Amino acid sequence: MKAAYLQTISLVERLHRQCLEVVKAELDRRGIRDLNNIQALILYNIGTEELSVGELTHRGYYLGSNVSYNVKKMVENGYLIQERSPHDRRSFHVRASDTGLEIFNSISTLFDAHAEQISGGVVSDEDLKVTTATLHRLQLFWSSPMPMGGGVNPAA
């Protein structure tokens, strides 16, 4: 079990890095040099919504300081519009600018093409559903408090 567990962790990490490389290649193909792959994924996760930085951190599971830095850079480079919340003057909301929406649409189109390509027999819809369910259970396991050294996981 331990070997399979460690192999899964390693594979998830490699898949994430490869996904970032695919996004970077798309940015390079489009000649975009003032936006990195993480920032492009943040734009993708914002999409057409308006979110607080806190919501973005929660939804995207990014580290808070990294989100703040990346949001600042994307505002400076014209990909995001940042406005103070009318209800809480301490909070800021962000939304994609027209340029940011172009990136969102580009990444969305890329992911649509990937979904179409893999549905041609590479991976079945059922395979993806089972994988997603398994990874979700791992996420719940990691996010549940558990004593060091093992013990019974309360989420199990």
From TrEMBL:
InterPro entries in the record:
HTH_MarR-typ, MarR/SlyA-like, Tscrpt_reg_MarR-type_CS, WH-like_DNA-bd_sf, WH_DNA-bd_sf
Give any Pfam family that matches.
Answer: MarR_2
| Database matches in SMART domains | HTH_MARR (SM00347)
> What GO terms describe the biological role, i.e. biological process, of this protein?
response to stress
On the tree of life, the source organism's domain of life is Bacteria
Q: Which UniProt keywords apply?
A: DNA-binding, Transcription, Transcription regulation
Q: In what residue span(s) does the HTH marR-type domain sit?
A: 2-140
Q: Name one GO molecular function term.
A: DNA-binding transcription factor activity
Q: What is this protein called?
A: MarR family transcriptional regulator
Species of the source: Kiloniella litopenaei
